[in-house]
Amino acid sequence: MKLDFFLLPHRCNGLPVFLLVISIFISTTKAQVSRQVRESEQGSSIILNCNDVSLQNTSVSLLHKTPEGVQYEVLPDKTRIAKIGGVFHILDLSPLDSGTYSCKGLDEKGVQKTIEIAELVVKRHAADKIPPGSKPYIKFKTPPLITIPIQSPNLTVIGIEVKGLRPVQVRWLKGDMEVDGQQRRFYINEAMDLVLSPPYSLSDSGSYEVMACNLVACTMRGIQVYIQKSKEKRKPKGVVRCISFLDIDEFVFLTESIFAGTWVTRENLLFALGAATLTGIAIPAGVILVTKWKREKLARRLERESKKVAKQMGRG
Q1: Are 214 and 123 a contacting pair, CB within 8 Å?
Q2: How much is the pLDDT for 312?
Q3: What is the pLDDT of residues 69-113, one digit of tens each?
Q4: Residue 8 — φ and ψ, nearest 5°?
Q5: Whole-angstrom Cα distance, residue 280 to residue 48?
Q6: What residues form the membrane-spanning segments (predicted)?
Q7: pLDDT of 173 higher than 80
Q8: So where are the chain's domains?
C-alpha cells in the first residue's frame, strides 16, 4: 500500500485555503473496468482513477469527450485539476465537465489503448436559470484561410470575438490535441486569441478549432492555416494567361507559341471567330487559364480548329 499527500489550492467563502488530498494506492491485480455513469452536483469534486485499468501508470493520460463529441486531454493546472500517478482529482465541477472520460496509455505489451472509465453528469443548481438563446457565438477577426510564409519573422494572431451568456470557457484545439498555451511557439493571450510565433514549420499547417462553452451549450468553429515553403511568388509552370481583344461574344484561338508563357498580344491572335467554340461550350472572351496537363490536348484542338476555320474562310 502506498500513501501520497498533495496540497491543492482552493477557495472557501472567498478565502484562499489548501485542500489536503490523500491518495491511497493498493497493489492489486489490474482488470478491465466497465464504464460507470456518475452524477455529481455543481461545485463538488470527483476522483477518476486510471490505476484500475490495464495500463502502465508512467504513460497514462486522461481524455474528456464532451456531449458535443469534442475530445481533448485533461491537463493538470495546479488550481482545479491535479494528477497523482494515475489518479486525477477535479475540483469545483460545472456542467462543462459533463461527458465521457477515458484513460489512454500503454498496456503490458506496449500497445497504446484507450479505455472508457466513466460518464459524468454534472447537475446545475436549481436556482440557476438559463436565458434562452444565449449559447456562445464565435466570430473570427481573420480570413478563413491564413497563409504564412515559412520564413516570416512575425507573430500571427488568430483573433476571435465570443458573445453569449457569461462566463464563457474558451479552448483552442489542433486535431485532437488541446493548445494549452504552454507550448514553446503557441500561446493564448488575454483576449483568448491564439498566437503563433516563429520559427514556423510545415507541421504548423492544418485546421485549428476554437471551442467556446457556457452553461447553455458549446459552440465550435475552425480556421485553416497554410505554411508556404517560400516567400517568393512564382508563376506556376504551364499556366498561361490569355487576354482577348475582342467583343464579349467573340472567341480567340491562339497559336502554339503562346504556350511558352508569353503575354498575349494582337500579333499572337490567329483567328477571331464569332459564335465559335473551343470545346463545344461557348466560352465568352475574357481571361482564360490553361493548365499544364491540358496544354498538349488544347494545342492539338487549336490546330484542328484553325485548319477548319481557314478552309471555311477560303484561306486554306
Answers
A1: no
A2: 63
A3: 888 888 888 788 888 888 889 988 888 889 999 999 888 888 888
A4: -120, 120
A5: 68
A6: 269-291
A7: yes
A8: 37-123, 137-228
Residue 166 has phi, psi (to 5 degrees) of -95, 150
Q: What residue has cell string 480567340?
A: 252
For the stretch 246-282, pLDDT in tens is: 322 233 333 333 333 333 333 333 333 333 333 333 3
* CATH number of the 137-228 domain: 2.60.40.10
37-123 maps to CATH 2.60.40.10: yes
> How far, in Å, CA of 9 to CA of 232, rounded?
52
Alpha helices in the chain, H assignment, sequence order: 295-312
The DSSP call for residue 125 is P
- Which pLDDT score is estimated for 248? 26
Range name among 14-23, 71-80, 92-101, 227-236 with the lowest pLDDT average = 14-23
Residue that the C-alpha cell 484561338 belongs to: 253
DSSP per position, 257-298? GGGGTPPP-GGGEEEEEET--SSSS---SSEEEE-GGGHHHH
As a whole number of Å, the CA-based R_g of the chain is 31
C-alpha cell recorded at residue 261: 508563357
Separation of alpha carbons 210 and 226, rounded Å: 17
Picking from 261, 244, 260, the residue whose alpha carbon sits closest to that of residue 252 is 244
Same fold, 37-123 and 137-228: yes
Look at residues 38, 3, 42 and name the one whose alpha carbon lies nearest to residue 21.
3
Query: Distance between CA atoms of 211 and 169, rounded to whole angstroms?
Result: 8
In the numeric block, the cell 500500500 is attached to 1
Q: By the 8 A CB rule, do 257 and 222 touch? A: no
| Placement of cell 466570430 in the chain | 139
